[in-house]
Amino acid sequence: QVRLVESGGGLVQPGGSLRLSCAASGFTLDYYAIGWFRQAPGKEREGVSCISSKDSSTYYADSVKGRFTISRDNAKNTVYLQMNSLKPEDTAVYYCATAECGRVITAHRFLEVWGQGTLVTVSS
User: Fold this and answer.
1) How far is residue 36's CA from residue 20's CA, in Å, rounded to a whole number?
2) 50 and 108 in contact (C-beta within 8 Å)?
3) Distance of CA 2 to CAs 11, 94, 116, Å?
4) Cβ atoms 64, 49 nearer than 8 A
5) What gap in Å lies between CA 26 and CA 24, rounded to an integer?
6) Which of 29, 36, 71, 122 is deepest in the core (most CB within 10 A)?
7) Percent of the chain with pLDDT over 90
8) Which helix (DSSP H) or strand (DSSP E) does residue 64 occupy?
């Protein structure tokens, strides 16, 4: 019953944009910080961005700062990740999950909920 579902991935050229969506069902999303994570083949999972449940404070990895924007729409129970100026190194499977926001973005310590992932491919 408790689910997060990502959508919006696809193939884009370098410099292009995508908006990823993370839709929650079975729970109220605004009670939790939500993070976006990504994992490329052969690489470890990394936290990309996070939005707090308390005041909607936002956090970004240095690699995406200034290019990506995280936001939430509590009425729609959805968190978004707007990705602009995409680079080939952004290619990865992107996941949303309940999270711990901070300088380092991690999964929620006790109540982890993960989406299935959506593939973003940046290539010319």
Assistant:
1) 10
2) no
3) 29, 19, 13
4) yes
5) 7
6) 36
7) 89
8) none
